[in-house]
Specification:
Blueprint (H helix, E strand, L loop, with lengths): L7 H14 L6 E10 L2 E9 L6 E7 L5 E8 L7 E4 L3 E7 L12 E10 L6 E3 L9 E3 L5 E2 L1 E4 L1 E3 L4 E9 L18 E6 L2 E6 L5 E6 L3 E6 L5 E3 L4 E4 L5 E3 L2 E5 L6 E7 L2 E2 L3 E10 L5 E9 L4 E6 L3 E5 L2 E9 L3 E11 L9 E9 L15 E8 L2 E8 L9 E7 L7 E4 L6 E7 L5 E5 L12 E4 L27 E9 L6 E6 L8 E3 L4 E8 L9 E6 L4 E8 L5 E7 L3 E7 L14 E10 L8 E4 L2 E3 L5 E3 L3 E6 L17 E3 L7 E4 L6 E6 L5 E7 L3 E4 L8 E9 L2 E10 L3
Parallel strand pairs: 1-11, 13-20, 13-21, 23-38, 40-50
Antiparallel strand pairs: 1-2, 2-7, 3-6, 3-9, 4-7, 5-6, 8-12, 9-10, 13-16, 14-15, 14-17, 17-19, 18-21, 22-24, 24-29, 25-28, 25-30, 26-29, 27-28, 30-38, 31-32, 32-35, 33-34, 33-36, 36-37, 39-41, 41-46, 42-45, 42-48, 43-46, 44-45, 47-50, 48-49, 51-52, 52-55, 53-54, 53-56, 56-57
Length: 726
C-alpha cells in the first residue's frame, strides 16, 4: 500500500493554498507506444496532464509468451521505489521525495521498457488491465487523481508469407501434397525496401514476416533443382497474410548423398554426445546406402541409435538402406574418451563417409580422379600416402605442400597418379604436427583440397609434442560424401553457448582462403538449475559471409529457423527437456551447426567475426564467445615450375633490413607476391619495369619470407628472403 508522508511545516500552507485556489486536479492521461529495433521491442510510456502528482502506481500487461522483458529506463525526475516484473505484467511505483508536487510537460516519457523478441505475431498488445495491482495516481493529501489509460495493439512485424516448397516430380509446375518436400531451401524476397530471406523446414514449410510492401519471390536454385516460378510477384501492401507455395523441377534424375559428423567439444575421460547426419539432396531415391566411420583411437562407441559393424581397426559401418529423395536422417552416438591425462589438449580426428558416392553431372573435362591422403606414424617417420581413389586417371599433375605446426617450411612436391595409384611421402618424426595439403584437381565439381594430419609422432627436444594445429587449415572435406571432424580434448567451459569453427584459421589473424567453407558449431548447455524446454538462438551473420551459401545441418531436435531483419539467423528449439548442467553434463547439452562461404569478392585481410546470443526458459539472455577469421591467400608450392626460368630474377640485399630490390632482366607485366612462413600472402605489388624496389617487408618481423614472381599471369620464379633486424 502506498503511504503519503505529509511534511508538518508545509501542512498549513498547502491547505491554505488548496482552500484559496479551489485546486482542481485534471485527469492524467497515459499512453503506450511500441516500436521494433532489431530483435528488441522498445515500449514508451508517455503522459499528458501530469500535474501536481505526489505518488503513483503504474501497471501494464505484456505478452510474456512472445516477449522477454529486458530492462527499464525511467524519467530522471522519477526515482522509482519498486519495480515488479512477474512474466505477466510490469509494475512500478513512485513517491515524491520533494517539497512540492511534481508536474511534467505534456508528452513526457515516464519510462522506456525493452523486450527481447521470442515469437512474432500479427499484433503485439500492451494494456493496463491488471486487477491485482491497478494503475493509480494520487495528489496532495493522497487525493485520488483520475487516470485515462490508453493501451495499444500494434503490428510491429508487418504481414507474413507462408507456404510450401515441393519437388515437381510430375512436371506440371504445380504444388501437390504428395510430392516430396524440399527442406533447407533458401527463399529470397526482393522489394524496394530491401532483400529478405527465409528457409524451408524439413516438411518444406516456411513462414516469413515482412514489412508491408510488394515483393518478388525467388527460390535459390541448386545444381539439381530449378524453380518453376522464378520472380513471382506478391502484394503484401494491403494483405496481412499471403499463402504462396512453389515447386522446383528436377534438372536431372540423380541421388546425391551428403553426410556431416557433429559433436560437442570432447571432454577427457567422459561420455560425449555426437551425431552423424545424412541427407539425400538429390531428385531420386538412393538405394543400398551406408556410412563408414573412421573413429579416433582414443574414442570408443558406447551407444548408437543405428546398428553398426566393425569393418577394420577403428572403422565401423552403418547400414541405411534406402534414403528417399529430399529426406534426411541422423545417427546418434555416445562416445567414451580414454582416461589418460597425457591426452589433454590432443586432437581427435574422425571421418564419416557416405555411399553410394557418385557425383551428379560433373563437367565433361573432369577426369574422375579423386585424391585421398592418409597419415601414419611408422617407426621414426611421418608417413603420408597420397592416392587416387577415383574412377579415372589424373590428366595433369598437381602440387602439394606440407605444414609443420603453423609453418610451411618449403617442403612440397607434385603428384600425377593413375587410378588406384599412390605416392608415399616420408618426413622425420620430430614431435611436431605435420599436415599435407594437396591442391584441387582441375574441373573437380567441389574443388576439394585433400589433406591429412598427424600429431604426436616422435618428440620435441624437450620430450613433449606440439598440439592444437590440425584445425587451423581446411579439413579437405569440401565434397558432400565426406565429413571430417577434429577437435582438441578439453575441459568443457560452463557457458550457455559456445561457438567453435572449422577451419579455425592460421596464425594470430586466423587466416583462411576465401573459398573455404566455414563450419560453425554451436554447443548449447543448460547452465540453469532446472530443466529447460525451449531455447532461442540469434546469430547475426556477418556481412562478409555470403548468405546465399548458408547450409544448416538438420537436427534431431524439433526446431524452426528463419533469417530475420539485419541478417539475423534465428533458431528456436522446442520440447528439449535439457537437464541442468550441474546434474547431468551429457543430457544438458546439444549441438547444431551451419556452414557458409565468405563473399567471393572478399579482399585480402577482410575480417570475419561471429557471435550469437541465447535465451533459455529462465528468460535470461547469454552471450556466446566470438570467433575470428581473416581472408588470406595460401600458396601450394614454393617450388619453381620451371627450373630453367626464362627470366633470371635477382633479389637483393638478401638478407634485407628494409627495402628489397628486384632485377627482373627486362620489362613485362609483373606481379610480385609476398608470403610468410604460414604460406599466407601478406602483400603483392605490380610493375612493368625491369627493376623494382619493394617496401613490402619494411614493417614485417624478423624471419623467412617467400616471393612468387609472375609475368603475364605465369609464374616465372620464386625467391626465399630473409628479413634481418636493422
Amino acid at each position: 500500500m502506498i503511504k503519503y508522508h505529509i511534511r508538518p511545516l508545509l501542512t498549513l500552507l498547502l491547505l491554505s493554498i488548496v482552500s484559496q485556489s479551489g485546486w482542481a486536479q485534471d485527469t492524467v492521461r497515459l499512453f503506450l507506444d511500441a516500436n521494433k529495433t532489431g530483435d528488441t521491442i522498445v515500449l514508451q510510456l508517455t503522459a499528458k496532464e501530469f500535474k501536481d502528482v505526489e505518488s503513483f502506481v503504474i501497471t501494464f500487461n505484456y505478452p510474456d509468451a512472445e516477449l522477454n522483458y529486458s530492462n527499464t529506463t525511467v524519467h530522471p525526475q522519477l526515482n522509482v521505489q519498486s519495480d515488479i516484473q512477474n512474466n505477466q505484467f510490469i509494475s512500478f511505483s513512485w513517491i515524491n521525495p520533494n517539497s512540492f508536487p511534481l508536474t511534467l510537460p505534456d508528452n513526457s516519457v515516464l519510462a522506456e521498457f525493452k523486450f527481447f523478441i521470442e515469437k512474432r505475431k500479427f499484433e503485439t498488445c500492451f494494456d493496463f488491465n491488471v486487477a491485482t495491482r491497478p494503475t493509480s495516481f494520487f495528489g496532495l493529501l493522497s487525493a485520488v487523481i483520475p487516470v485515462q489509460l490508453n493501451p495499444i495493439c500494434k503490428n510491429l512485424f508487418g504481414g507474413f508469407v507462408e507456404g510450401y516448397l515441393r519437388m515437381d516430380i510430375n512436371n506440371d509446375c504445380m504444388v501437390d501434397g504428395f510430392e516430396p518436400a524440399i527442406g533447407n531451401a533458401l527463399i529470397r524476397f526482393n522489394g524496394s525496401n530491401g532483400t529478405f530471406y527465409t528457409v524451408t523446414n524439413e516438411d518444406g514449410y516456411y513462414q516469413r514476416y515482412l514489412p508491408y510492401n510488394n515483393y518478388t519471390v525467388n527460390t535459390i536454385n541448386s545444381d539439381l533443382l530449378q524453380s518453376c516460378n522464378a520472380g513471382s510477384p506478391i502484394d503484401l501492401a494491403t494483405n496481412k497474410t499471403i499463402s504462396y507455395s512453389s515447386a522446383s523441377a528436377p534438372k536431372q534424375n540423380c541421388a546425391l548423398l551428403e553426410t556431416e559428423f557433429i559433436a560437442a567439444q570432447i571432454e577427457l575421460c567422459a561420455s560425449n554426445s555426437a551425431s552423424i547426419r545424412y541427407y539425400n539432396t538429390g531428385t531420386i531415391n538412393a538405394d543400398n546406402a551406408y556410412i563408414t566411420l573412421d573413429l579416433d583411437p582414443v574414442l570408443t562407441i558406447e551407444e548408437s541409435s543405428v546398428a553398426f559393424s566393425s569393418i577394420g581397426t577403428y572403422t565401423y559401418r552403418f547400414e541405411l538402406n534406402t534414403i528417399k529423395a529430399q529426406s534426411s536422417g541422423q545417427i546418434n552416438l555416445i562416445l567414451k574418451s580414454a582416461c589418460n591425462n597425457n591426452l589433454s589438449g590432443r586432437t581427435v580426428q574422425n571421418i564419416a563417409r557416405i555411399f553410394p558416392n557418385s557425383y551428379c553431372n560433373p563437367a565433361n573435362e573432369f577426369s574422375g580422379a579423386e585424391i585421398t591422403v592418409t597419415a601414419g606414424c611408422i617407426g621414426n617417420e611421418n608417413v603420408f600416402e597420397i592416392k587416387n581413389t577415383g574412377s579415372g586417371n589424373m590428366k595433369k599433375e598437381i602440387v602439394f605442400n606440407t605444414v609443420e605446426d603453423d609453418i610451411m617450411p618449403n617442403f612440397g612436391g607434385k603428384v600425377l597418379l593413375d587410378k588406384d595409384a599412390a605416392q608415399i611421402v616420408r618426413y622425420p618424426a620430430n614431435g611436431k604436427t605435420r599436415i599435407i595439403i594437396v591442391d584441387t584437381i582441375a574441373n573437380h565439381p567441389y574443388k576439394i583440397r585433400s589433406s591429412a594430419a598427424i600429431e604426436g609422432c616422435g618428440t620435441l627436444p624437450n620430450g613433449s609434442i606440439s598440439k592444437g594445429y590440425i584445425n587451423n587449415y581446411s579439413q579437405g572435406d569440401e565434397g558432400p560424401f565426406i565429413s571430417k571432424f577434429s577437435t582438441e580434448i578439453v575441459s568443457l567451459a560452463n557457458n550457455a553457448l559456445h561457438i567453435t569453427s572449422l577451419p579455425e584459421g592460421a596464425g594470430t589473424p586466423r587466416f583462411i582462403n576465401k573459398s573455404d567453407r566455414l563450419r560453425y558449431n554451436f554447443v548449447v548447455r543448460n547452465i540453469t538449475t532446472s530443466f529447460v524446454n525451449r531455447v532461442v538462438i540469434r546469430n547475426k551473420i556477418p556481412v562478409t559471409l555470403d548468405i546465399t551459401t548458408l547450409r544448416l545441418a538438420r537436427n534431431d531436435s524439433k526446431f524452426t529457423w528463419s533469417i530475420q531483419e539485419d541478417r539475423v539467423l534465428e533458431v528456436v528449439f522446442e520440447g528439449l527437456n535439457l537437464a541442468a548442467y550441474s546434474e547431468d553434463k551429457l543430457l544438458s547439452q546439444f549441438t547444431f551447426s551451419y556452414s557458409i562461404v565468405p563473399l567471393s569478392e572478399s579482399i585480402f585481410n577482410t575480417k570475419i567475426e561471429n557471435s550469437a546470443e541465447i535465451i533459455l526458459d529462465s528468460k535470461v539472455i547469454y552471450n556466446s564467445n566470438k570467433t575470428l577469421h581473416t581472408v588470406g591467400n595460401f600458396i601450394f608450392t614454393i617450388i619453381k615450375e620451371n627450373e630453367n626460368d626464362p627470366i633470371n630474377v635477382k633479389a637483393f640485399p638478401n638478407p634485407c633490413e628494409e627495402n628489397l630490390n628486384f632485377d627482373l632482366g627486362s620489362s613485362g607485366n609483373y606481379l610480385i607476391q609476398f608470403f610468410n612462413q604460414q604460406g599466407i600472402k601478406i602483400s603483392e605489388e605490380k610493375t612493368n619495369l625491369s627493376s623494382f624496389t619493394s617496401a613490402a617487408l619494411v614493417n614485417q618481423i624478423q624471419g623467412v619470407y617467400y616471393c612468387l614472381i609472375f609475368n603475364d599471369s605465369k609464374k616465372i620464379s620464386s625467391v626465399k628472403i630473409i628479413k634481418a633486424i636493422k
